[in-house]
Known about the structure:
It contains 15 helices and 17 strands. The protein has helices spanning 11-23, 34-43, 62-69, 83-90, 105-117, 130-141, 153-162, 180-190, 209-216, 228-253, 263-280, 294-301, 303-321, 347-360, 386-402, and strands at 3-7, 27-31, 48-52, 74-78, 96-99, 122-126, 146-150, 168-171, 197-202, 220-223, 285-291, 325-331, 334-339, 362-365, 368-371, 374-379, 408-411. The strands form four sheets. The protein has a five-stranded parallel β-sheet with strand order 2-1-3-4-5, sandwiched between helices. A five-stranded parallel β-sheet has the order 7-6-8-9-10, with helices on both faces. A five-stranded mixed β-sheet has the order 12-13-11-16-17, sandwiched between helices. Helix 2 runs parallel beside helix 3 (62-69), helix 7 (153-162) packs parallel to helix 8 (180-190) and helix 12 (294-301) packs across helix 13. The two termini are 51 Å apart. The relative contact order is 0.06.
Amino acid sequence: xxxxxxxxxxxxTASFIEYILKQEGFLCDLAYTYDEAKxxxxxxxxxxxLSSIVLEGVSSGKGIDLLLENxxxxxxxxxxxxxxxxxxxxxxxIVDYVLKKNExxxxxxxxxxxxxxxxxxxxxxxxxxxxVRNWISNILRRQGLTxxxxxxxxxxxxIFYKNPDIKLVLTDYAMPQMDGIRLTAHLRSIKRMDELSxxxxxxxxNSRTAPLFLKTGANDFIHKSASVEEIFCRVNSNLESLExxxxxxxxxxRDFLTGIWNRRYFFEYANPLYNEFTSLDHDLCLAIMxxxxxxxxxxxxxxxxxxxxxxxxxxxxxxxxxxxxxxARFGGEEFIVLLDSVSKNDLYVFxxxxxRAVEKSSVEYNSERISFTVSIGAxxxxxxxxxxxxxxxxxxxxxxxASGRNKVICENK
Length: 413
């Protein structure tokens, strides 16, 4: 687990921050003096540090300087909102500042959580001024973000095509080649607002500029006179919104019991893949699996035991298929698998090896050892629709059940 360093002469404040961050699952080291902080930095790696501006025995800001000199991203901890003090600490390339107040506990957790999540997260800054690009990039790199830059809209598009995992674009309005409006419209045609956040940073004073960008598909608009602090907050807020939407979508697409994909997500994912593989004439295989005598497990050991069997089976199936296809719970004790990286000639062996692995496994529940098997129907014949593949696999599954269970029946011609 990545560690956090807390530097504060007040043991009460240091313990307060440690408590907040431990609730978030972070490991913390505490230093109450400049020398203790120096010693800990020499022997540990920290992804973030929180340091009081004032430390006993050294001049104001000295602890923050120590951290920054050792390339430790730093959040300043202060009890003052004096403009002069805040302006001075922002000159030090800090990540942000937090207040020594109970009501700021949630923000402390939020900013540390944000920095931790930012590792490897890509954003792009687009501006024809190298000075502005460098200024904004420096601000955002302090947040732990991976920053890509472009001097105009056309260059930005090229970079975006090579880096489709970019989560946020911060763009100027007036640029040669392709301005911010056209860039926003083009990017929005590729990625929805819940997949890519676009923030416009402009010095344009026209009151219609911001609404025009927002109507074109921008998520936010910041004037170039904005403070570093405001840019921090707007960027972080947009990233958090994207994550909340992604988490909500993921929850909606997951089976509540087993955690694997549900029936709804299967069709959302499978139909486009079926169309693509059919047009390319690539092998695509589909299997439906049913845990044998599952009602007997519920009747004999109880529904909680049945749930345990479903969880173990789904985990085993998910790990076995891995990146060779999609696994979903289709309903009850029935599971569906779409295989896009298994050839039709290898289909039977691939599925029968899994059947054998299930046959050898068991679940321990309340000191009882519960064994179970699986029947599988599968097809590599694409037919005229995804639904026809499902119907075919379902019929083959019925045949496997009717002929004794614990077997695979496959159709690949």
